[in-house]
Design brief:
alpha/beta, 2 domains, four-stranded parallel beta sheet, signal, ABC_Transporter_SBP, ABC_transptr_periplasmic_BD, ABC-type transporter, periplasmic subunit
């Protein structure tokens, strides 16, 4: 999985030169069907991609970061060892969906994309997004990215659109294989025997996700039982709860989305009455360079699922964190294994 030939993400300007040298009929559009069933004419040689929503950035990045012309969220300084230099200076233009402003049309136009890719989700204004496609005079694809199971098809579609079918197929099959391995390990566990998990979000740990939220699907993929058996009402989730509610739910494990909340839960006497805290079953979600749980939702949920399955059921899912995380970062992020600080990523460094 760590073959550097597959993972170095070379930017290939020679492809552009070769495309320009071809007769016009050879670079005309080919028809693709996106994940909503729309027929889209896509140029044969795509080198400049606008990712219209946060989850699309890591999707394209994993295939070839050199194809991105914009970002819609900033990387943090501590992410630097894991971020390709091809994207570190890209403009941040805004986003469709999530928290933040919609794309800045003037700034976006200056990036001159050849293809736009958007996230198809019920909370998005699809007409507004399609109008952006028209304003940019680019073809636009919609992809499904809510769930980890969506990623193989999304990789394959985008890989075909941007001329990276072989790498996209490799990533798609890897996602399928990881989901299959974890599923086989945890599927036999009866629901009454599954570890009960509370997902603590926000600075005080008192925001959370319902069990059906894609922001928390890693819990159930890993064989856990999300104690919040509610229905998600808004895309961003983060439903408020009280500490008294959490105490009554009595989770076996607490998963925490940010360091500040992790420190708060570990040190605040009000949380010390919870069995998970007393027994040392509080875990910080890794976030370098993309959040492992899903803000934005990405392929990082594949390694999160494996990590958390091993946390919950080490006797069922044997997993070497040092080896596997390095291999994952090499395959998906193009990072050499010696650069990957596994203990720091897991919040133990």
């Amino acid at each position: 999985m760590s073959d550097t030939k597959d993972n170095s993400f070379p930017f290939r300007p020679s492809l552009i030169a070769a495309a320009l040298a071809l007769p016009m009929f050879a670079v005309q559009a080919a028809e693709l069907t996106d994940m909503t069933g729309r027929k889209v004419q896509v140029p044969d040689a795509v080198e400049r991609v606008f990712a219209a929503a946060p989850p699309v950035v890591p999707l394209v990045y994993a295939i070839d970061p050199g194809k991105l012309v914009t970002l819609n969220f900033p990387f943090q300084p501590e992410d630097a060892p894991y971020v390709s230099p091809l994207v570190k200076d890209l403009p941040i233009v805004g986003r469709y969906t999530g928290e933040g402003q919609p794309p800045n049309p003037e700034l976006l136009a200056k990036t001159d994309p050849q293809l736009s890719i958007a996230w198809d989700i019920p909370f998005i204004d699809a007409e507004q997004v399609e109008q952006t496609f028209e304003n940019l005079n680019t073809p636009g694809l919609f992809v499904h990215l809510e769930h980890l199971a969506d990623y193989p098809a999304a990789f394959e579609l985008v890989g075909k659109a941007i001329g990276e079918e072989e790498r996209a197929a490799l990533l798609a099959e890897d996602i399928r294989a990881r989901m299959r391995r974890v599923g086989e390990a945890v599927a036999p566990i009866p629901e009454v025997e599954r570890k009960r998990v509370y997902f603590a979000e926000g600075n005080d740990g008192l925001l959370t996700e319902c069990y059906d939220s894609f922001h928390a699907e890693v819990i159930e993929l890993a064989g856990g039982y999300n104690v919040m058996r509610c229905e998600t009402k808004a895309m961003c989730g983060r439903d408020p709860v009280s500490l008294e509610q959490v105490e009554k739910l009595d989770p076996d494990v607490i998963l925490v989305d940010r360091p500040k909340a992790f420190a708060h839960i570990e040190s605040d006497p009000a949380w010390s009455g919870l069995r998970a805290v007393r027994e040392g079953q509080v875990y910080l979600v890794p976030s370098k360079p993309f959040n492992w749980m899903g803000r934005p939702p990405s392929f990082m949920r594949a390694v999160a699922m494996e990590w958390f399955a091993n946390v919950l059921y080490p006797e069922r899912f044997d997993w070497d964190a040092e080896k596997e995380i390095k291999a994952f970062y090499a395959l998906y992020l193009g990072v050499e294994p010696e650069v990957v600080d596994v203990q720091a990523i897991l919040g133990k460094g």
